[in-house]
């Protein structure tokens, strides 16, 4: 199971909203923990981005 999938079970966010940071570098979706030399006791930071808002172009505008 992917690390992001495990995290998603704990936090109500879509996968594209999750950003994992280790040693100052943003981890890509396809990366695994071994690629970044993540070991027990080290910290991975999680940033949950805000859900995308509906664009103004999609919102109905009053006539005139």
From TrEMBL:
Signal sequence segment: none
A Pfam entry, by short name: ubiquitin
InterPro entries in alphabetical order: Ubiquilin, Ubiquitin-like_dom, Ubiquitin-like_domsf, Ubiquitin_dom
Positions in coiled-coil regions: none
GO-annotated molecular function: polyubiquitin modification-dependent protein binding
GO CC, one annotated term: cytosol
UniProt-listed PROSITE patterns: UBIQUITIN_2
Residue stretches making up the Ubiquitin-like domain: 1-49
Gene Ontology biological-process annotations: ubiquitin-dependent protein catabolic process
Top-rank taxon: Eukaryota
Entries under PANTHER family matching the protein: FI07626P-RELATED (PTHR10677:SF3), UBIQUILIN (PTHR10677)
Protein name stated in the entry: Ubiquitin-like domain-containing protein
Organism of this sequence: Rhamnusium bicolor
Lineage of the organism: Eukaryota, Metazoa, Ecdysozoa, Arthropoda, Hexapoda
């Amino acid at each position: 199971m992917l690390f992001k999938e495990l995290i998603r079970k704990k936090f109500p966010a879509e996968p594209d909203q999750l950003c994992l940071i280790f040693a100052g570098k943003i981890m890509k979706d396809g990366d695994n923990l071994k690629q970044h030399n993540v070991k027990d006791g080290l910290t991975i930071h999680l940033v949950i981005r805000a859900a995308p808002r509906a664009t103004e172009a999609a919102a109905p505008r009053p006539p005139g």
